[in-house]
Sequence to fold (216 residues):
Amino acid sequence: MSNIQPDDLYNQLCENASTRKKKTLALVHEVCKKQSEAEVKDFSLGTIAALMSDKGGLSEQALRNKNAEPYRLLINNWAEYSNTTTKKPKKQTTTTINDEILSQISEPTVKALVGMIMAENRKLKNENNLLKNQTCITVDMRNQKSNSLANNDVVVVSAIDDLTETEIEALKDAVSDKFFKERGWTTDEQGRVKEKGYPVYKAGYVTAIKKILDEI
Fold:
């Protein structure tokens, strides 16, 4: 990490710079200082260029040019000063308590069933909230794709819409060829699951999950 402070480097770069370069350096310095105080410290060239655009600053391509090295040095210095880099920060994914619970379940079938229960629970909560907020409401439980009603009083609530990525992956794993092969399971046209001829799940198990996945 560089020992020189951003303010000191800025002053050094301005010493022999032209008036135009001093103006650009000042703009880069100002934008980087604000980024250092932001919650997400993004010092990528694209972001810095975007923040300078409305003030007549350089474009991202211009910042990458050979003669823009002083500006990049200043940006890099600010990034180091803020304990980060000039790479674009990765977006943080929001993890729900349901996702955490599902991540602890190693058995794909159990994970899929728990995920379906969670989705159904969210659907019921959504319906309950709708009923609280409206005095007159009709809840249509039919598949949205087959529902052609245009009545504004009809609200379609589908558990499928509430499935998280974790729950969708759990459903896929539960009926995957790899999982069946590992368990030595077989299935038939009616969706039954058998192991060495003995029933594991009744008719409709595989077909029901696949229908859900087809609707996503």
The chain has a mean pLDDT of 82. Residues 1 and 80 are 6 Å apart (CA to CA). Residues 6-81 form one domain. The beta strands are 138-140, 154-156, 185-187, 193-195, 198-201.
